[in-house]
Amino acid sequence: RDSRDFPRETIMRTAVKLAFAVGAGMSVPLAIWVGVGMAYYNQIMGLPASSSGIAISIAVIVDSLLDPLIGTISDNFTYCPKLGRRLPFMYAGVLPLALSSVLLLSASATWGQPLLILWLTVWLIMARVSASLFQIPHLSLAAEIATSYQERTTLMSLYEFFLAILCPGSFAAVIFFILPHRGAVDEVTGKAEYSSGLTNPDNYRILNIYVAATVCVLGFGCVVTLHKLLPIKPHQQTSTRGCLLGHRMCEIWSAITFRPARPLIAAALSSGVAWGMFETVALLNQHYFWRIPVRFIALGPASWPIAAPIALTIGRLLTQQFSKKATAQTGSFLHGMLVMALPALRLSGIVGFQAPALEAVVVCTLFGITGATNTQMSAAAFSSMLADVTDAYDHHCGKRNEGVFFSTRILINKIGTGIGHALAGIGMDAVGWKPNTPPELMPLVVVQRFGWLMGAFAVFDFLSAIAMYWYTLGEKELRQIQTELQERQLPTCTEGGASDDASQIEMTTSNELNGLVSSGHADSVCGLPPGFPR
């Protein structure tokens, strides 16, 4: 190949990676929702925290059960050759996500609690399933765009970098420019219509327009660019016999029980519980526990873009010097320590409840930068580790089911998140949290109990770090696996038609594997339940 082709190839690969990373923006509407959702339904609609938390939990768990189905159908999708396996689902997810995100924040306070719970549950399911239609095939592309150990780490770090800029940046913009408005000011008393912008329904109507525009621009921008730049490779279905649902369940079980994936599945469940509990109460924590004015809360999510390059640099250094596992464990453990330390500063009196707002803002911003660094560092390493597991699965079972593994990871993480939402809502009711109550009227003893509840979330971060101790797939093992996968693709016959020794060995190994599969004894290798329909 002419050397002049390489600069263009490098530019194209960089453009593909950037387009892939922009797809992180499809998490923006759900990132905004988890920030304001509990405040909207608890403080404006008047739903008890436990009812809101359980409704959110139901929606998340229902969505999570559909995720593996989306992933496996994507793996076997051959009905649109011009778009390939992944892009049709990504196209299909954009507009439904925009519509359902708008309807989520369009409820009425005049409705009764049963109707509010139904409205919240139905449209949150719609929003989350639409997001999964985009995100699961999108993340599955990572194992196809990047193939090497370090390149995958770089790609997923770039994805986490954009995720850290787009989601917190968008949330910060919402908090700073949209939510602070407290309505019309009374000319006689000089007081605004609402004591806090969080309780002003008009702010959420403006928020709906912002969310819908963001979803359409970022979603279609990502998928259209990938459609133009990414070569579409022909793919043959990996499942052609038997009941479709039976094959889907078989592949899901295979991913969950595949030995190298088990520690990651356990870690995803534990971290999901921690994240679900934290995101449910994050905005209320800043406004009620720390008494920070709404506009200044924007400094918290705004610190995530600052943390992104720090996480990228530290994560790559730790991975190069140690391993991906060490990077992910370090991030989870340090994040747990910070989750414990932050409310402890307030409850111990170091940063007292009567402290100036500026002091609270500085503390929360510094902890936001450090906490975001640890979270992003762990998430990037975790996603890269899962991409390596797909190679190990291909090596052992002869299938490239990237969609199954990434969707199963999302399933487990979402189940954990749903559990976390429910636990947070129940915990808020247990400490005496009151709906439709502004910060200045919330009893101090309730706020203090709420702080203790926040510190307890750290336990699940520690459990996630412990679970990853049993992950054993390192760089050396991955290189060996990828070398053997490449050797399998080599021709098995010589030019004269006779097979050489290596070819004979390869054919013998292949025949033995086929014999194991046909007899059912390969189940222990691929993690399939004995006697399960193939």
Structure description:
- This protein has about 525 residues and is mainly alpha-helical.
- The chain has 20 helices and no strands.
- The radius of gyration is 25 Å and the shape is globular.
Chain-wise SSE layout:
Blueprint (H helix, E strand, L loop, with lengths): L4 H18 L5 H17 L4 H27 L11 H18 L8 H28 L1 H4 L3 H30 L22 H29 L14 H14 L4 H28 L4 H4 L1 H23 L2 H24 L9 H41 L4 H29 L13 H13 L1 H10 L7 H14 L12 H19 L3 H4 L8
Helix pairs in contact: 1-7, 1-8, 2-7, 2-8, 2-10, 3-5, 3-9, 3-15, 4-5, 4-8, 5-15, 7-12, 7-14, 10-15, 10-16, 10-17, 12-13, 12-14, 13-14, 13-16, 13-17, 14-15, 14-18
Beta-strand portion reads under 5%
Using the CA coordinates, give the radius of gyration.
25 Å
Q: Report low-confidence residues grouped into runs of 5 or more.
A: 1-6, 493-525, 527-534
For the biggest sheet, the summary is: none
Order of helices and strands: HHHHHHHHHHHHHHHHHHHH
The DSSP helix count reads 20
Indicate the overall shape. Answer: globular
Quaternary state of the chains: single chain
Mean pLDDT: 79
Through-space gap between termini: 44 Å
Overall helicity: over 70%
Number of strands: 0
In terms of structural class, how would the helical and strand content be classed?
mainly alpha
Short description:
This protein has helices at about 5-20, 30-45, 50-75, 85-105, 115-140, 140-145, 150-180, 200-230, 245-255, 260-290, 295, 300-320, 325-345, 355-395, 400-430, 445-455, 460-465, 475-490, 500-520, 525.
What attributes does this structure have?
20 helices, about 75% helix, disordered C terminus, mainly alpha, globular, about 525 residues
